[in-house]
Amino acid sequence: MQKVLHNIYYLGIKELQSLWRDKMMLLLIIYSFTFAIYIKATAASSELNKVPVAFVDGDRSALSARIINSFYEPRFLKPELITRDQVDEGMDSGRYTFVITIPSGFEKEVLQGKDPAVQLNIDATRMSQAGIGAGYIQQMIGDEVGIFVNGYRAEMAMPVALVSRMKFNPTLDSSWFGGIMEVISQISMLSIILSGAALLREREHGTIEHLLVMPLSPTQIMLSKIWSMGLVVLAATGFSLHFVIQEVLSIPIAGSQALFLSGATLMLFATTSMGIFMGTVARTMPQLGLLIILVILPLQILSGAITPFESMPEALQYLMHLMPTSHFVEMAQAILYRGAGFEAVWGNMAAIAAIGAVFFLISLVMFKKSLAEAG
Description:
mainly alpha; four-stranded mixed sheet
């Protein structure tokens, strides 16, 4: 047993040395766990931020001026006043996300108690801003009209007092969600890429034949690649959580990082096994890249990291329960967002371990078959 562990250890050291000489792969790891996470957290925002808006003011009254002046940064850029003839051109060119047309006699009809219509043109190709902004603009215009008519900001009387409390993200800051979800996505992607590439390097450099003549079993070869590549991703994850997430982005982590990294270790066992399976099936790096694209995109999109898991069709939910990423995302969100302990996530961790064992056995069978054909 000691000799087996000795072989696995030194084979893993060899993999780390090979990775160290692969500068492009090192750059990919550094970028994925630093700049990619920062960009995802800060650029992919779902809030309104400096949205271009224009007005066609056909009324030119005190009320229309009040409405126009209510649009200001940071949610909106300074409104532009345009004519009706400029609306189509501005929308077609993408210069404006919203164009609001205030008709002539708007203030007069409001004071007469009528319900005049305000036209809101939306560039719906900007989907997130269009959906959020439409409701926001409607509320803003309604508030300004109410203040103008009543002379003060009137509160709508409701029979029930609704008190809202935002748990886990009180300011509804999308960077808190995007940053941590990107860390989770990078764990899955990088572990598959590194383990698959480690196996293909053996084949492309001709060192797989050297391993065949050594007193090594396929299990030892696989385990050496799993622990070495998994260690690299785990170290990068720990660094990213502390330096990028907490220090640079100032995103609070509610739960135990040690518990999360323990779950990530189980996840890495599953995903590195998947990577070795793909490296066995693929014969070249381009083929591996195509396989990873076909696999990793559905895993990331359907795991619950981008859209809520419960919003998917029920049959798809059952299918995704067979993938480790779904359980890992649920576990990670519970720990990092809600501060859950082991008693709340042990089921997810057990599922990840079981699925990882299945992937390991399948990969081992395929790897043995590949070595037998090579021998």
